[in-house]
Amino acid sequence: MHIRPATPADLKGALAVYKSARAFMCKSGNPNQWGDSFPPRELVEQDISTGALRVCVDENDEVLGCFAFLSGPEPDYAHIFEGSWPNDEPYDMVHRFAVLRQGRGVGGTMLDWALEHGRNLRVDTHRDNKPMQGLLDSRGFSYCGIIRIGRNGDERLAYACCDPKAREVPER
Fold first, then answer.
1. Which of 1, 13, 34, 91 has the most other CB atoms within 10 Å of its CB?
2. Looking at the domain that runs over 2-166, which CATH code has it been given?
3. What is the domain partition of the chain in residue ranges?
4. Helix (H/G/I), strand (E/B), else coil: 96
5. Counting Cβ atoms within 10 Å, is residue 87 exposed (0-12), middle (13-18) or buried (19+)?
6. Do the bridges between strand 121-125 and strand 92-99 make them parallel or antiparallel, or are there none, so unpaired?
């Protein structure tokens, strides 16, 4: 597996990943984070055209997972409740993080890449997204508080990893 920037040829694969992730979320007790239509095709196309979307592919170049890797500031992160960000330094973010199938190490590979390439990394997730919370915990992220999503006002749990180089990466 390796991570690379997505190209327009990856759109179909990325949309399949997001469709699979929505179904998994629903089955695992998290039906509200993305509902049945997030992220919309137009946002995925925008992520590809701006160079934000990263794909995790296998040796046959099949898309196994994807995520948007962005630089801050993020307007939704400007106000954090019931906690605080660990610092005010520039940061990168992971958004729209999804895998095609669970339990194959794809999520860990993608998050490890983001930690290696990011600075002062920030992530948010839904309160009901226990698999993502577990992955963040396993990679040294700290819970920071609650943020609100501007598009709909929903709450998200906010996490940060300020010194990714100092954390221990689990053996694969």
1. 91
2. 3.40.630.30
3. 2-166
4. strand
5. exposed
6. parallel
